[in-house]
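Input for the complex:
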Amino acid sequence: MNNQFFQISPVALTIVSGLVLAQGLFALRPELDLGKTIISSAIKGAVQLALIATVLIWIFAHPSWYAQALVVSIMVFVAVRTILRRMKNHFPSKTSSVTFSLCLSVFPVALMGVSLIQPHFWQYPSLFLPLFGMILGNSMNGVALGIERFMEEIKISRLGLINQLSLGATPQEATAEAFRKSLKAATTPILNTMSVVGIVSLPGMMSGQILAGGSPLEASKYQIYIIFLVFMSVFIGSLLGMAMARNKIMGPSSRSFYTWKAS
Amino acid sequence: MLLAENYSLQFAGLNLVKNLNFSFERGAVYRLSGPTGRGKSLFLLSLIQLVDAHYSRLELEGKSCSSFSPEAWRARILYLPQILSLSGEKVSDMFSQAFALQIHRSKKLDYKKLGEYLQFMDLSPAFLNSPVTGLSGGEAQIVAILRALLLTPAIILADESWSAMDRELKQKIIALLKREQGQAFHTLVFISHDETRYFPDEKQFSLD
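Predicted:
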């Protein structure tokens, strides 16, 4: 099989970076006004990747579980912050709801997924960290979508919910429709990916492995494995997140639901 | 029937109700009076625990509020919202969906009684099949009241529940309520901007 690994030469990198920089400088003109964003994003991306490469090289050389735990914690911290910042609707204790639902979905799924490949995964950060990163990165979108959509639906159907609650419906009964819609919103991206993977595009992970010289069969196995893990994480995470949000807003007796306003 | 002590309700920093002691008796009809504003509706909403209120005592038929689940409480004290929300496709859905709720599982929708009510209101049985989206405001209010009667609560809290009806319909629905008091429900507390004394024995209830 002709599956050689090709390194990217400094020349190639310089040319491509230089072109982006040039386009950024070009876009500084007032009619386009995109220059600053292009240049800052490019620099940010390149610097962050260089840093993470350094960190990973060090961790791979000294595989300790606490170094990996630290990296993983930082990743989760940034993920939670990103989700919270993107969420427009506020509800009480949304930070803990988002954190718990993300952690209680991503960690069990990732740990299970990686230990099925290698039971002593902490000795192999080159396996654990990328896998964890992919699951976290791909699930946070789904979880955020689910919670956001749920909050929107509650806001829109507020009158209907009050009518339902007045008739004696439980919060679960009253929000059943909203829950359904939000779960669909949360899982549609990953389900779409599942349905078209391999046909519409060669997904990133698979491409990366093939580029690195791996066999397409192994790459495919890894890809579907990861997609399934991501789905599980999104499914569990969004269900948990929405249930927690519902409990916070509609409380044990929905006592303050009428006066709740999503700010 | 409903007994409350030291009932206090605040909203947007204002004291709507302050340390009120009150009771709603079995078989009585109360008109909740007061100036327009959200205070009256909020008070009724607080009675069914959709708005937070403080009290030292709140009992229904001798049992403390805390011994009820919120759903069980709301099944006994039924609030008819000022702005109704319609659900389902046909009018009959609005009845059957309510009886499908967990808390009402043990009750059965009495279609015979519903037929009687419709006849009383001069509505044909075909009304049940009409699309929910075609209901006028007054018709929707009738559906809500009939549904409340069929759910047989102890107390009905009616928030402007006949505001969209013409005089004739109003008189009919109130006659039905008068007829069913003591059977489908026991106590009525209502808010209405129509000052007509439809209930000769109505008692004035003020929030101060």
